[in-house]
Every structure is written in C-alpha cells, then in structure tokens.
C-alpha cells in the first residue's frame, strides 16, 4: 500500500500524505516513504519546489501510537525537509496535531485553509513536544509556545499565522498558495537553493547540537508509566487517571 502519492505540474512536485484511515499519522512506513520521495525530488532536476499536502480532513495527526516511527527516523525526516536544496511548501486544508506540527514547521512556507486547526497534545498524553522543538521553537513566537506546549489547546489558522507557525492563513488554501508557487517558478534553482541555505543554517546547527539529547528525552517519556496511561486512555477514548 502506497502512503505517499507524487504528482507534478510545471516544476512543482506534490507529495500527498495518503493514509486517511489513521489521519495520516506518522507511522514508520509513512516516514520511510516520505523520506524516499523527498530524496527522489532532490535528485530530480525537473523539480523546482515540493508541495506537501494530504488527503482527508487531517494533514497529520502526529505519531501513530500503534506503529510509531523510530525517533531517529522522524528526526531524520524533519532534517531532510530543512536541508533539502529545494523549497518545501506545506498545503494544509485540515487538522494538525502533535508531531504533525513538527513536520509542518520543517517546511519553508506553510499555507493553511480556514478549516485547519492545530494542537500540541503531547502534555495531555504524559509526553512533551521534544524532538519537534527542533523545528517549532525557531519558528513559533515564544510566548505562544509557552501556552500551547503546556495546555494542549486547539487554535485556528489565523492564530497559527499570528504566532509564526504558518506563513499564510487563507479562506481558500489554493488561492493562498497560488502566488507562492508563482514566485517559486520564477526563481532560479540556484537562487532558491542558496537563499534557502541562508535561512535554514541556524536550524540545521540546532539539529546537530540538540537532536541526540531530544531523541533520548522522547524515548524516556514514551517508556514511562504516565505516558502508557496517557496513550492507553487516548486509544480507549477516556480521560487519563490524572485528569481532575
């Protein structure tokens, strides 16, 4: 079963997360297929830029709790998006949760439709947004990060744009995306690669400096009793034991 569908038009490769049955959750298989697809786009001289989008009502629900990826593989995926010598643009016409926000924040530009919603739900599961901090914290307003990391509240596309998570909040996601893609098609491949390198250099250094520690933190949290209770409660659609 293919979880990533690739199409193309006028130099733009579109990679579609196509696992609606689990709300495009980050399974080991999806992460592996997406990394392979990105590598193919990087090597394809006909590709000017990549659009990352989704089927169904959810862009990405975060980690697949029944078949989670190895944390190193997911960190590798986020780093590959950041380091790709071609711009990666997220097209979001649905919901984004937990690790999905890390995937979104790894993209260079993000356009979200008015029906989109966002939440960092890790704290409610006994976890923390550990490895996704590598892409989120350089991008998101720190005051907003304090709030949403801790509370797990949902917020809409307008708020996501206000705090820097998305570039454009649009009533119609494709109309919002159109001028972005036009601009990318008018730019030279060399100009795009060199310009992206300037804006991602600090983020890549952060990966090199902090990724190993954050992977270890994430693994420790996932193995804890509290996280087991949180994830079990989530799968059983009940409140975890600590809710008051």
TrEMBL record:
Gene3D superfamilies, A to Z: 2-enoyl-CoA Hydratase, Chain A, domain 1, Lyase 2-enoyl-coa Hydratase, Chain A, domain 2
Superkingdom of source: Bacteria
Xref: InterPro entries: ClpP/crotonase-like_dom_sf (IPR029045), Enoyl-CoA_hydra/iso (IPR001753), Enoyl-CoA_hydra_C (IPR014748), Enoyl-CoA_Hydratase/Isomerase (IPR051683)
Family the UniProt entry places it in: Belongs to the enoyl-CoA hydratase/isomerase family.
Protein name (database record): Enoyl-CoA hydratase family protein
């Amino acid at each position: 079963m293919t979880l990533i569908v690739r199409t193309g038009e006028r130099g733009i490769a579109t990679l579609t997360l196509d696992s609606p049955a689990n709300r495009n959750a980050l399974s080991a298989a999806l992460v592996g297929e997406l990394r392979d697809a990105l590598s193919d786009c990087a090597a394809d001289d006909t590709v000017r830029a990549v659009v990352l989008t989704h089927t169904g009502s959810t862009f990405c629900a975060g980690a697949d709790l029944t078949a989670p990826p190895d944390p190193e593989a997911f960190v590798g995926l986020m780093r590959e998006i950041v380091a790709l010598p071609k711009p990666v643009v997220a097209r979001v016409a649905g919901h984004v949760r937990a690790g999905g926000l890390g995937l979104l924040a790894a993209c260079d530009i993000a356009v979200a439709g008015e029906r989109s919603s966002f939440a960092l739900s890790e704290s409610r599961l006994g976890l923390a947004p550990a490895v996704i901090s590598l892409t989120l914290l350089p991008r998101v307003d720190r005051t907003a990060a304090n709030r949403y990391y801790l509370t797990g509240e949902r917020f809409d596309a307008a708020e996501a744009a206000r705090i820097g998570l998305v570039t454009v909040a649009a009533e119609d996601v494709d109309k919002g995306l159109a001028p972005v893609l036009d601009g990318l098609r008018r730019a030279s491949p060399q100009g795009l690669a060199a310009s992206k390198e300037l804006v991602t250099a600090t983020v890549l250094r952060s990966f090199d400096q902090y990724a190993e520690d954050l992977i270890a933190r994430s693994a420790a949290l996932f193995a804890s009793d509290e996280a087991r209770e949180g994830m079990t409660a989530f799968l059983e659609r009940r409140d975890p034991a600590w809710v008051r």
